[in-house]
């Protein structure tokens, strides 16, 4: 494989432990949300980390898609990712809702842009066919 970049993060202690990147730029305590039986402590959780990564990556993909479609994104454009954890038989599964906010774009252009970004975003490519992803604009 010819990687452009490789991120390395080590988890210790599972959902109630820590995650630390090899360059120490990421160093978080984890807590288990009350909704899945945890103490809802002050740390983050894997679903929040996934949502943060997906939202940021998708925002970047929107920039690529906007340039290709010759659309202008304003600096206050946003993407909100909501990652749900659910039971699926004996396993657990994720689903994602991505909501874009694009001041100055029509609803039709904004939704077309979301679909174009979904076609190229690495998170979208990685989850395609395995994770339900709902796209919307506000």
From TrEMBL:
It comes from the Bacteria. SUPFAM superfamilies: OsmC-like (SSF82784). Gene3D superfamilies: 2.20.25.10, 3.30.300.20. One of its GO terms (biological process) is response to oxidative stress. Belongs to the OsmC/Ohr family. NCBIfam families: organ_hyd_perox. This is Ohr family peroxiredoxin.
């Amino acid at each position: 494989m010819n990687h452009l970049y490789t991120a390395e993060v080590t988890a210790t202690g599972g959902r109630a432990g820590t995650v630390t990147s090899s360059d120490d730029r990421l160093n978080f305590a984890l807590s288990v949300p009350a909704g899945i039986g945890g103490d809802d402590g002050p740390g983050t959780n894997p679903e929040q980390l996934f949502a943060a990564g997906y939202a940021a990556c998708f925002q970047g993909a929107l920039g690529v898609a906007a340039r290709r479609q010759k659309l202008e994104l304003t600096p206050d454009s946003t993407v909100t990712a909501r990652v749900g954890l659910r039971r699926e038989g004996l396993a657990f599964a994720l689903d994602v809702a991505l909501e874009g906010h694009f001041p100055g774009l029509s609803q039709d252009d904004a939704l077309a842009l979301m679909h174009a970004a979904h076609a190229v975003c690495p998170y979208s490519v990685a989850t395609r066919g395995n994770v339900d992803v709902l796209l919307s604009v506000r």
